[in-house]
Structure formats: C-alpha cells, structure tokens
C-alpha cells in the first residue's frame, strides 16, 4: 500500500491544480465584453477577439460613410460627397 502512496499523492495534487485553474477566457461574454484571458488558449482567443473587433470597427465605419454619402448626395453637397467617397475607398473592402 505504501508503495503506491507517492503516485496517489501526485495524482491528487494534479487534480487539485486542475480544479483551481481559471477558465482560459470568459466564454459566456461577447468579444466586446471580455476582460480576462488566461493561459495559452486565452491568448489565442484574445487574438481572435481583437481581429473580430478590428473588422467590426472597419465595417461600422464603412457603413457610416455609405449612409453619410447617401445623405450628402440627397443634399447635393459636393465637398461631403468627395470626402465620403474617399472614406469609403479606404474603409470598405
């Protein structure tokens, strides 16, 4: 019985360590609301979240510029039309 005591102790310690480790990231939150990332899987998720947020920001700016262009065209404002077309060419892919 004492022969297996070290092995049993190690297994118990490993189980205890595993039980106290935090989640890699806050799975129940949207990427915009996540604030904690832990370990390698957390770092990977953080990169994915940052890529998503940057793409979303560009998409939002593109949509805003298109709306502003439509408003400028309806008002006949040529300087805003030019500016919005420039913004669209930069932001929209």
Automatic annotation (TrEMBL):
<protein>
    <recommendedName>
        <fullName>Lipoprotein</fullName>
    </recommendedName>
</protein>
């Amino acid at each position: 019985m004492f022969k297996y005591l070290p092995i049993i102790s190690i297994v118990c310690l490993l189980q205890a360590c595993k039980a106290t480790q935090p989640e890699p990231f806050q799975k129940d939150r949207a990427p915009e609301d996540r604030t904690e990332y832990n370990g390698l899987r957390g770092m990977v998720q953080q990169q994915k979240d940052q890529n998503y947020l940057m793409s979303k920001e560009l998409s939002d700016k593109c949509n805003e510029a298109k709306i502003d262009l439509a408003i400028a065209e309806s008002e006949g404002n040529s300087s805003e039309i030019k500016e919005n077309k420039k913004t669209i060419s930069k932001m929209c892919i």
